[in-house]
Predict the 3D structure of the following.
Amino acid sequence: MQYDPIKKSLGKVFNNALFLRKLFYKLLDLLLLRSWYIRRAVRIWQKGNTLNARILDAGSGFGQYSYFLQTLNKKWHITGVDVKTEQIEDCNNFFSKAGFRNVRFEYADLTAYKPNENFDLILCVDVMEHIEDDISVFNTFSKILNPGGLLLISTPSDKGGSDVHYAHDASFIDEHVRDGYNKEDITQKLKQAGFSKVEVIYSYGKYGKAAWKISMKYPITLLNASKLFFILLPFYYIILFPVAFILNILDINTNNAEGTGIIVKAYK
């Protein structure tokens, strides 16, 4: 399944005005369960950190999480990096027009990233499943994170991540280079990179998997089949969003024994 063309089409629709872009971010926060987990983890981290924290949004994409971070605290200095230059240009344009002065976006390959500053928090959401050389990325994160800093990762697990449940299954997203991480494997890799403590929990348990199918899998499948579904998409979500919303609430408040996603906290 090609996901990037769908994202580009959605981006064009919501880039026509500042309020539409902000609405887009709000919709993503409501629909994407991983965003619920990430925002909760950031708010917990926020309680013990200074006003002038430096944060890296590693794989910033649309800038959804950079926007969330800046709305939490406008004194935080946020750097968003990505390998897609069109998204870097787009984000710099939006954040400048929106008046966010402490946010900047730049091109970077995370396997060889050498910034001029270190960070107190590194956010890495839906990125590691796209990068073959994950060891280099984890080593980079360890080098550029300040002592006492936090690396926060959301990525698919090996328990059905990327909608892969059996050996012969193909990944739902063609752009993924790995279907998911084993909890022990990613913990070992991060500790070898220099992190002193690693915590891993499952996301997208039985409730979250059902929510993902309703809010993401089925709409993306239909949009890949025909762009005409864009016309029907609002009506689809009006009917089914309340169900997905309740399932998201249930998932984030459940101690999932297994799940198709993992949330990782790694401490320097």
Q: What stands out?
A: The chain has nine helices and seven strands. The mean pLDDT is 89.
